[in-house]
Request: fold
Amino acid sequence: MYYYDMGVLRNTLNEIKRQIEGWPYVVHYALKANGNPHLIKEIASSGIGADLVSGGELQAALEAGFKPDEMNFSGVGKTDWEIRLGLSYGIGSFNVESVPELEVINELAGEMDVTANVAIRVNPDIDAHTHKYITTGTAENKFGINLESLDDVVKKAIQLPNIHLKGLHFHIGSQITEMKPFVMLCDTVNALIDSYEQQGVHFEMMNVGGGLGIDYSSPDQHPLPDFKPYFDTFKNRLKLRPGQMLHFELGRAIVGMCGSLISRVVFVKQNRDKKFVILDAGMTDLIRPALYEARHEIQNLTSDNEKVELYDVVGPVCESSDTFARDCRLPLTRRGDLIAIRAAGAYGESMASTYNMRRLPGSVFAGE
Reply:
């Protein structure tokens, strides 16, 4: 099951609000990180907006209480029904990723006799130095419009009759823990604001996406992400124009630290020089270690044995990649012990599957 500490989630949301208070900043929660209905209702009640990547997420956000005009819809492959759904509710912005998408949104908006709010997603060719599967801002990635094509796309958006161009959108990657990529992003945004103002184009908003990482190795010592240097980077480096708003789309940083995957030890197995702790949870419940080579803090909740041993912590799925950790230091572990895989609130439950016809994990909430 997934165990969610609602106190940690509320503290996280309060710290975000404290950091942006008095600034022309708007924060959106990226539902792809975790769409658990109980969590997103709590997040919606805090007053922040929603970042969406599918029609299903849009429907879930509406049910949770997010306001349509505070929703952004991202993604490279929005289908017609998803675009129509967003248009019918008058969402705050479609983050447009290609010229064909821009043309389709304009066409569908015309058919519905409405105007679509859009932000053009820019690929700034910034390497966030994170895992290759979660880097999104380099020229080799599928996301966004390349800088050399941006002028033509901006002109086209301005000319289309059913499009209102609100601004530019960026997202350079995820699990970024150094501020240098964000500094580089600020410099790129500043240059683009200057360039377009000289052309007589004023944007009412800039959207710098998300990407702030969390401390997977020390969740008890750092239960909240390091928001201050993150927001300070934009406060000190990005030069907004009067009346311009800056939007953020945070996912992992909001829900990552509040969740843990709780599992029971099925067997402890000796195999030559290796000891394996075999759990009833597997990659179907938390795929990050198998997919991203991610590391999570793993704790034995029920053993107080002073003897510490090295184990490979694995799941029951019939795949060699179903491994949570290798050479993990745990107190002497036995069948029936409860194991917590920490900082699993983001991209855990939301990416769970029924592969091997396994049941999806349940969820419980503490601190209500």
Q: What stands out?
A: The domain at 2-256 is CATH 3.20.20.10 (TIM Barrel). The chain is about 30% helix and 25% strand. The longest helix spans residues 180-198. The two ends are 18 Å apart (CA to CA).
